[in-house]
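We treat protein structure as text, and this decision shapes the records that our systems exchange. Such a record has a labelled line for the sequence and another for the backbone structure tokens. The record that follows is passed on verbatim for readers who wish to inspect the format:
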Amino acid sequence: MLRLDTGRILLVSCMLTCAAFIISTPASAQTGAVQGIVVDAAGKPLEKALVLIEYTDGINRKYDVKTNKKGEFIQIGLQPGGYKVTASFENLGSQSFPVRVRLGDPMKVNFKLGGGAEGKGGMSKEDAVKGMALKAKFDEGVTASKAGNYDDAIAKFTEAAAMVPPPGCFDCMYNIGYNYMQKKDLDQAEASYLKAIEMKNNYVDAYNGLATVYNAQKKFDKASEASQKASEMASAAGPGGGGSGAVDAEYNQGVIDWNGGKITEAAEHFQKVIFLKPDHAEAHYQLGMAYVNQGKLAEAVPMFEKYLQLSPEGQFAATAKGILGSIKK
């Protein structure tokens, strides 16, 4: 029986609700974007304000765009990563924000110029300090989780969650659930994912996390329900099925069907994963296994070969090589 374990830590920058930008739901594009609005101290849109977007994660890349009559701007085609976004207008000064661009929906950055506000980004000094402290604590959780220090990560994300006013830090709760899942504490993982969904009811990754939990508990009906919700929400996020959320949902559902003995249905889900993400190594392996179970040995061969090409030292590499050797004999 296969074990479903497709959860992943969300490496996101978590900010206070009073911050001037929000993190959007990922979609399926291969590049990201930044959009927003620039206004003056009275809230009046500023036309032809200059917005400079500078890549900060390596190679120096700069983009500039001007706002329209409504003070709006958008820059598409951005490589995922860290950026510094600065808006400026004659006689009103400038304002900057750090932004982490992801694939899919634009990251939103709003500016207010000429207001004489204290602190970076138009926030009060107190709120700016709180935001920095929150980000630092969240990043400590990410570091601990990546190092396999799950108890420490849970403690850090819990501290971060306590620093965010209602409705709360859904990313913190997701990551708490993820780390409990790594500890095999399924009940606590379930509770944390459910809390994340309570805070953000269209949280695709949290539903995928629930599917992981329920599959590990062999609650296949509940796992299928959670995975289906994730798939529907990911599909609603945009063309192509909602990016990584859709891929995870399809893969989860394939494993759930496999565990339930529904080999044909499982194969269909793994095929869709490969269509959405051609370099998904595990989907190639699982589809190969499905073909073997269906007696389609000739079709299984390229799946195992592709898996070994994508993940030569992967967890299924030895099995894939063994099956290939048997088939080719």
Notes: The first strand starts at residue 21 and ends at 22. Residues 21-122 form a domain with the Immunoglobulin-like fold (CATH 2.60.40.1120). The chain has two domains: 21-122, 148-328. The two ends are 26 Å apart (CA to CA).
